[in-house]
Amino acid sequence: MNILVTGGNGQLGCSLRKVAGMYPQHRFVFTDVPEADITDRACIAALAEKHAIDLIVNCAAYTAVDRAESDAETAAKINVQGSEVLAGVARERGIGLIHISTDYVFDGESCHPLKEDRPTAPQGVYGRTKLAGEQAIEASRCNACVIRTAWLYSEYGNNFVKTMLRLGRERDELNVVYDQVGTPTYATDLAHAILRLAERGVSGFEVYHFSDEGAISWYDFAKAVFALAGIDIRVGAIETAAYPTPARRPAYSVLAKDKIREAGVRVPYWLDSLRECMAILSVPTEK
Questions:
Q1: Is 126 annotated as catalytic?
Q2: Entry pTM
Q3: Among 23, 62, 126, 153, which one carries the catalytic annotation?
Q4: Per the database record, which ranges form the RmlD-like substrate binding domain (predicted)?
């Protein structure tokens, strides 16, 4: 297949670049804003034509959760209009689309792993625009697969793991919320999941959930990062109310992975993947 990847310079796009060599049977065209404005239909159509694209993987998104609360117009342009454009080109050319979405489409009030058919109820601008993007894709009637994920991290860009490593070297103590529960997702694992589904074929409209396996709090996650890195720091557990942010965070966002497993996708345990990432970051890890 000829695969067009949008958002190629982001965490997930870089992770797809990293693993692309393991899929030599496919040809990848990586783009980001300078090469492919996903809100410009003529631009996307021209790229699809030029490279005889068989599948679009959309990793481009407005992901600044807090900033979205005061910049709803830009968030909607990228997350909704961009999704409409990509879906329209996919429909027009009869090609597939794999689109990355988020746990923020839910209200975060569950206490059981979230299945794909659970009713959505986003609590902020980011979640609402991502859900609207999903709905635009479904309404286009293109062949599409939406993958919702959560707590993404990698050796690329800015993310929780790299922030904890930096703060752990700068401070003697740190407070982290303990009442938000989810599962870390190593972007490399998600990249493999995307390509596994791509090879399975994209037909109709499907929604899948993918994160790594397990359930922990941000506090647990931070403690694990410090333990693996050998960083001696006092970590305090605080409630979300003690750390107010413009956008509300889900209290519970553990995603159920039964459906994606049935599709033949491997789901690694979060701690194993964290060790792998930190080894790449050249951080000492426990045996």
A1: yes
A2: 0.96
A3: 126
A4: 1-280
